[in-house]
Amino acid sequence: MFRRPLGALLAAMFTFALVTAPTASAETVGLSGTVALSNCSGSVVRLAGTPATAPALVLSNGHCLEEGFPQPGEVIVDRPSQRTMTLLAADGHEVATLRATKLLYATMTGTDASVYQLGSTYADIQRDHGIAPLELSPEGPDVGTGITVASGYWKKTYTCSVDGFVPELHEGGYVWRDSIRYTPECQTIGGTSGSPIVDTTSGEVVGVNNTANENGERCTMNNPCEVAGNGQVTVRKGTKYGQQTYRLYGCLTPANEMELERPACTLPKPA
Q: N or C: which end of the chain has fewer CB within 10 A?
């Protein structure tokens, strides 16, 4: 999984991508509305129709929590948090420090996602910093969809296409379902975990970047394997993956609270 590789990444690797968000061109999808966490990337996101007065949400990975990975089968809901994150503008410069009030949801079971609720509303962020949230798509992408993975941590974007979908992606003791496989152009690295996966045509977020098979090993940590419906295992060394995010639509209220008991909610729930 794409955690920050401690002591191994050099400041010289930082590059900047000129961006606006959201837009309809791969050349201009990028960093506006993304955030840098202490160990990962993330983005300020909203569901279509959510009022500007709702507390803003930040999307990242479940494995990006400060306290470490959730256990297999663990689902965290409504945990107080004071985590800070750095908001980026279109040209990649840092414009503000945002602070969470709550870890609204986090898991590494079925998907690899975390959602923080901030103390600021979308209207606050727009007024004070001129930054609009990225909009989550209510639907998943198709094979061949052009995508950009936008890393707030590295201030860099990676553009490629959806190569396919994986029924089950296994990594160590974790299993993720209906994962997005990228074409080889997206050479994401450590620190890009939690980056939004943006549809380069619609400008909407269709997923969250989370892992890659680094060494060609079979189903081990940092070496996920693909498991088909018939149980066949495929290992693709160097291949990068992300998790779809459309399922958040069935679970979030207009006030940006998580209600997992809603009939339309298909996210994993606490045991």
A: C
